[in-house]
Amino acid sequence: MIELVLSVANDDERIRAVSMEGSRANPAIIKDQYQDYDISYYIHDITPFYNNPDWVIEKFGKPLIMQMPEAMRNPCGDGNFNYMMIYPDGVRLDLSFHQGVYEDDGEPSVTLLDKDNGNGLRPQIPQPSGAIYHIKPPTELFYYSCCNNFWWCLNNVAKGIARDELPYVMTMLNEIVRSELHDMINWYIGTKHGFDLSTGKDGRFFKRYLPPDLYKQYQETYSGSDYTDIWKAVDIMCDLFHTLAIAVAQHFSFSYKNDEEEGIREYIRIVKEK
Question: Which residues of the chain have a pLDDT value below 70?
Answer without folding.
Answer: none
